[in-house]
Known about the structure:
The chain is an alpha+beta fold and 139 residues long. The protein is built from four helices and five strands, in the order ββαββαβαα. It has helices spanning 20-37, 60-65, 94-121, 127-137; strands at residues 5-8, 15-17, 46-49, 52-58, 79-85. It has a three-stranded antiparallel β-sheet with strand order 2-1-3, with helices on one face. Strands 4-5 form a two-stranded antiparallel sheet. The radius of gyration is 28 Å and the shape is elongated. It starts with a strand and ends with a helix.
Amino acid sequence: MDxxxxxxxxxxxxxxxxxxxxxxxEYESVKEFLMSEGHEEGTQVHLMETIKVATxxxxxxxxxxxxxxEEGFEWEYWAKWEExxxxxxxEHSYEKEALIKGNKIKKLQNExxxxxxxxxxxxxxxxxxxxxxxxxxxx
Length: 139
C-alpha cells in the first residue's frame, strides 16, 4: 500500500493525500484557517500517515457458493474486508509530543525515587526533609 496522508481536525473537513508535501501544505492551511476563524482552546489539527486501510469488496469465493438473495437476504452481494497495512508516522502529531513528554516525566520521576532510596540507604537527608523532621520532632 502506498502511503496515504490524512489531515484531520474536529473543526474542519477530513482530507486525504497521496503526497506528503500536499498533505503538509493542507495541514498548515487548516491551522491558519482555524486561527483566523476562531476556535476553542485545545483544538487540534492532525497530520497522520495511515496505519491500516480496510476496503469493502465483493466476496467472490462466497458468491460462488450462494448469493445473499438465495439465502433470503435483500442485498445483492456478499462482502468482506480487504485490509492493507502501512507504517505509522506521527509527524506533527500532538499525541506523539504528549507521549514523549509523558515518558520523559515518568522516567525522571522514577530516577528521583531511586535517588531518594539511595540517599535514605546512606543516611543522606535533604534540607527540605531535615526541616520537616525538625518540625515533626519539635526540635
